[in-house]
Every structure is written in structure tokens, then in C-alpha cells.
Amino acid sequence: MRIAVLRGGRSAERDVSLRSGAQVEEALRKRGHDVTGIDLDLNTWDVLRDGNFACVFNALHGRLGEDGTVQGMLELLALPYTGSGVLASALCMDKARANAVMAGAGLHVPEFEELELKQGMSADTVERLVSHFGLPLVIKPVREGSTIGLTIARDADQVASGLVLAARYDRRVLVQRFAAGTEITVGVLATPDLQVLPTLEIVSDNPVYDYDAKYTAGKSHHIIPARIPEAARAAASEAAGRAFTVLGCSGMGRVDIIVDAGGTPWLLELNTVPGLTALSLLPDAARAAGIGFDDLCQRLVDHAIGRHQHHVGPPAE
């Protein structure tokens, strides 16, 4: 098939997306497909419209690629594409609204508050946040990924500076109670049948599993299955599958979770286009389930085409 791989773009995760896209292109070429890599820009509409592509593999991370924007463009072009649709993509990129939906479904989400930072925060605001949520306190942009703009504030000064940092990326800032425990991630596939992948524990050489730890070889380690009790693994897997379903996702996703000492899974976020680089989490979890990276990419393409055919219906006689 002739397949376009969208990667790069203009988000803060551009470099990671380029690496994800390169991995996907290599995998699909191994499967014998005619693959064209496309760096998202103002010419992308024309290239996709005129390219006679059977499918678009979306390897874009962050804004304009993971937030429903590109998905809407592909719907208008009537092109099959991998991953979640417009609504689920937009919802999952918006951490505040996704958290509200998950909490409303009875899933465990650390208490949070959204602030709109049009101007700097006052000392009274910082004091109120510390008094209400305690320390440490998690601060991050509402609509970014890869821990970009994230601060785990351990004193009032770090709260103030963390708000400023997050506001550089988004005027909407999420402030959230810190969940202590084991950091795990759970991959989910739905191509179309739902498959929850093995739990993966993240061990970071950095104090926080940040952008540097995620994408620098040797700075983080993946342990499969996660070193938590079996009951906690089952609870985390069940919660990940429910989150994926209630948020309306399809194709693939990755749910980031903290499992506390009592075995409760606290859901942090769901990524609809998780990293697909050589160091990324979802491909490792898929391999642990017996799904090689080439096969993973092929399954996502096949699902995208099947979903599109079902959606548009058979051609007229």
C-alpha cells in the first residue's frame, strides 16, 4: 500500500515525533509498503489530497497532531488514519477535561484544579494552593505532553516558578495533588478488539521521569511486569482499559498511572499517540505481549483502513 507517515510538526514534541515517524517508516517499509514521510506544514493538505494514499499513519505528538486538529483535516480529506478520532484526541490532550471525565466514571484521579494564567500569580494564590494540596505539588500545562513544562514543587518558591514555567506552554495550567507510589504505564490496543498490554514499571535515573530521562538512552529502565502485587497489576490494567473506553479512544493509547502503597491506581493521563521511538514505552509493552514493532504498525494501519471502510460504507453499485 501507499502510506503517508505524518511526523514532526510544530509542537514542543517535534523532535520526538520525528524519531517516532522514522521508526514507523522503517517498520512499514519492511512490510513492503510504499511509504512517504511528511513533516506537517502548510503544504500537507495538498500533499495528502493529491498523494493517492491508502492510509495515513499519524506519528505526530502534542498540539496540532494529537489534539484532534490533524484528525479533523484527515476526516475532511476522507483518508483513513491511525489512532483515535477527533473527539477522543481533543479530549485526551486536554488533561483537565479528561481528568473530569475519568473521575466522573469512578476512576481514581488525584485531586486537581485548573488555573488560567493571564498574568502572574499572586503570593496569596501560591499560599492557597500549598495550603489546599500540600507539598510536593504537581504543576503542568493542561495541553502538553512528554512532561514538558512539568514541575514537582517541594516548596512555595518552586510552586511560583512552576506556575510561570507551565504558563509558557499554555495559559491553562493544571495544579494537582502529588500521588506517591510506583510509576507505571499501561499500553492499550484496540484494533478493534480491546487488548490491555502488560504493566510496565518506569525507573528513572533522574529525580523525575522527565523529557531527558524519557529520550536519553540509559537514563531510564523499563521493568515488565511492574514490581507491584498481582492485585494491583490487575486493578491498574482494568483502570487503563476503562479509561481508554470512557474517553472514546481507538487504535492505541498509553495510560500513565501511579500505584500507591495500598495498591490503588491513580490515573495521570492518557496519551493517544504515545512515543514510538526505540526508547519508548508502548513498543516495549507490545513486545512483552508478543507483538513486534512491525506487526504493531501493520495492525494499526489495517485497523485504520477497516474503520474507514465501515464508516463510509461500501461503494455504490
Mean pLDDT: 94
User: What's the Cα radius of gyration?
Assistant: 20 Å
Spans of 5+ residues with little confidence (pLDDT < 50)? none
Terminal CA distance reads 24 Å
Overall CATH class of the largest domain: Alpha Beta
Question: How would you describe the overall organization of this protein?
Answer:
By secondary structure, the protein is an alpha+beta fold. The protein has three domains: 2-82, 3-Layer(aba) Sandwich (Rossmann fold), CATH 3.40.50.20; 91-108 and 180-296, ATP-grasp fold, B domain (D-amino Acid Aminotransferase, Chain A, domain 1); 112-177, ATP-grasp fold, A domain (Dna Ligase, domain 1, 2-Layer Sandwich). Helix content is 39%, strand content 23%. It has helices at 14-30, 44-50, 69-76, 86-93, 95-104, 123-133, 156-169, 211-215, 230-246, 281-288, 293-312; strands at 2-7, 34-39, 55-58, 112-116, 137-141, 151-153, 172-177, 182-190, 194-196, 200-204, 220-223, 251-259, 265-271. The strands form three sheets. Strands 8, 9, 10, 11, 12 and 13 form a six-stranded antiparallel beta sheet that branches. The protein has a four-stranded antiparallel beta sheet with strand order 4-7-5-6, with helices on both faces. It has a three-stranded parallel beta sheet with strand order 2-1-3, with helices on both faces.
Question: How would you summarize the topology of this molecule?
Answer:
Elements: E1 2-7, H1 14-30, E2 34-39, H2 44-50, E3 55-58, H3 69-76, H4 86-93, H5 95-104, E4 112-116, H6 123-133, E5 137-141, E6 151-153, H7 156-169, E7 172-177, E8 182-190, E9 194-196, E10 200-204, H8 211-215, E11 220-223, H9 230-246, E12 251-259, E13 265-271, H10 281-288, H11 293-312
Parallel strand pairs: 1-2, 1-3
Antiparallel strand pairs: 4-7, 5-6, 5-7, 8-9, 8-10, 8-12, 10-11, 12-13
Helix pairs in contact: 1-11
